[in-house]
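Let's practice the habit of predicting before peeking. Look at the sequence and jot down your guess about where helices and strands might fall. Then scroll down.
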Amino acid sequence: MEVIICLTPDPTAQAGRACRPIRITIPLPNPPFSVCDIMDTIRALLRSCYSQYGWLRVLQICGIPMGISPAPYMANLFLGWYEYCFLLQRYHPSCTPVAAAILDTFRFSKRFLDDLLALNNRHLSSFLFRHDVGPLPAHGLLGLYPPCLDVPVQEHPHLPAAHIPFLDILLVHQPTTGATPTSRFTTRLYDKRDQPAFHDVRLSRYIPRCSNVNEAAKRNIFASQFHRLRAIILDIDDFALQAARLVVALTRQGYSFGQLLQRTNDALLALPHLFPIQRRTTHRDLFPRIQRQAQVLLALPPTLYPLGPVPVGCRRW
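Done guessing? Here is the structure:
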């Protein structure tokens, strides 16, 4: 490994470069673990996943145990290798122009662990699985994933056709009309707990104010969730609604409604680059809008809003 350190003054150097770099070569030590050690560790993790149900203890013998720290890395490595081999066919000498065009359609696909999103890819269903046995499919391309994987197609009948959920993001396709019709995507928050199946179920999204969790963790709930909303939402109207829902959700868990609104205003003032164009034109009243929506949602009966009442014994904060 070579490290460049700039310590020696150089009076002949140009402005802004007033030092002569020194190159130092640092030998890397031998790796503490060999490949065999890593493979033994992985085998031990895969063979030591037990779950206990009452008096019954069950050993998982298929798949990657969920909950262990390396599980996401192992899943990404396993699936990523198949994706790499699939796209590598693009550079094979025998790849025809038609096959190259098919492979190019997978550029608009995104996967996070076991969630796969593909936009405008009519070839996904035909090349979703590999054909290791028997004749190759059309155009001589191997499929994407091994046949042992179960990749069900998700159905969302409660969403419009132009809405596509992916993780906690809702992609919304918005075509425009005019002399040159165009289209764009915007993002909103997608929460699986908002599905119709959960309307009659009280779900505790955040820890109550009266819980025994340390105070710093409870104070950080609002900040972390606010930054999560601003990071994934591009639709400013949905951002205002979700920010109001966050305030109401924490209020119903015993936190102070006034202090939550004050923290919302402080966060907006500290982030002038958040929706800069809209906040200068059509949404100058972003905080008053969040405040009004929070007041409306808070006035709804708890049975009509899936946030639940304030837990018994909790004090307002």
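How did you do? The first strand starts at residue 2 and ends at 9.
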